[in-house]
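Its record is set out here:
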Amino acid sequence: MRTLLFSSLVLLSVDAWGAIAIDSYTISGVGSTQITWSHPCTGCNFIVVGVVSSANANVTISSVSYGGNLLTEVVASTNASGVTQSSLWYLSNPPTGTNTVKVNTTDTVWTIAGGAISFSGVDTSNAVDCSSSTLTNNPPYTMSLACTTAVNNDWMVDCAINNNTSVLTSVSGTSRWANNNFGGSSFGGFGSTKGPVSTGSNSMGYSDGAQNQEGMVLMAIEPATSSPCPSMNMLGVGCN
């Protein structure tokens, strides 16, 4: 009986270490060369920023930072003329408290917006499991994007843009931020999450009633796989 109790407690503790949870999510205002907004990070160890923009060709996002720390770009989608762009960026172990997200461009764009989502329980040493991107201009009026995860209990994060006044509706995830018709233009930016998911091909998508120059990017983040404690006590619950 004692052996069974010990095993059960250890399993529960391992599950807790491997559980990703959302800390907070925020949305930006709009700009033409730079946008900034405040984002709180209370118990997080990972932050993802999605950026959408409408711009002339060859104008790109030059940097994204949080609390003065530069984020790493994971994946981006740009149509042939460079008009619609979407991208995902991340930072492991971000500073705690409320800090500023700052997005810079290489030149003036028509309009730019974004959203931030912070998480706890992410494997910060090997955070990104997979990523993918898509761009579509043709019916049917849906976007679907998948990537193949190798780790169980990943969370999926996406970022999408459309070039019309219709609101994109997440068909397989939970909407976390939306900036429709941003900057007084016809462009809209959206971000969603889905998790936890099992290993294998996992997809997210959006539906839209009037598709035009839509793009989407997707990434999967891995859960932490080791104890946050330097050691376990005899019951495997807590730190010595």
Observations:
- The two ends are 24 Å apart (CA to CA).
- Confidence is low (pLDDT under 50) at residues 1-17, 228-240.
- Helices lie at 2-17.
